[in-house]
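Format notes (please read before filing issues)

Several people have asked whether sequences and structure tokens are stored in separate files. They are not. Every record keeps both together, in the order shown below: the sequence lines, then the token lines. Line labels are part of the format and must not be stripped during preprocessing.
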Amino acid sequence: MAPKRILFVFTSADKTLTGAQTGWYLPEAAHPYYVLAPKYDIDFAAPKGANPPVDESSVQNFKDDVGFLSDETVKQKFANAKKLSDVNVADYDAIFYVGGHGPVIDLAQDPVNAKVASEFFQAGKITSAVCHGPAALVGAKDANGDSIFKGRRATSFTNVEEEQVQKVKDIPFLVESRIVELGGKFEKAPEPWGAHVVVDGNLITGQNPASAKGIGEAIDKALSS
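Then the structure lines:
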């Protein structure tokens, strides 16, 4: 039997609202990738396609993960990353949004992305995101036309964590606040920066970089069951 297929979605945004460099956050791609790659076929996608920008601060802060950037298989996947507009949802069993401040800038406002995320969710496929990645799901709708967060348990990078990294002015909205506004039942670790993963049906979310490996394991468990 062919292995199940997962689409990793990255931001194409390289600047925050204040002009600071941004992109996707290294451990939030590397940790779940290495949990899932041995068992699943993984493709990469981004709004603009190939070679989405990495957040340079994540490369500096997570030196143990820089091998992901030089991994030949990963480099090929980045070079061949699809544009979101070219994604065929039927080809995949799960979608996973990598965090970094970038998704709040581009994916949250992208109608193509909202359509893709909605199609995954409504098909009952794993719809997952970590840290700022859930910002990419704020436009996604369930079969009733309601937000996929409405009445469901979820997490993301918290308002307190955002304040602690002094990035509130860099993004158009706080992800935790938006999930609550959309009717989500927001959950978080007892302390900022603690690992926390929430599974509610086919919606799987992780709070922060520390949750990246755990969300990979949760996606694996969901696809294996």
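For reference, the curators noted about this record: The longest strand covers residues 41-46. The chain has one domain: 5-224.
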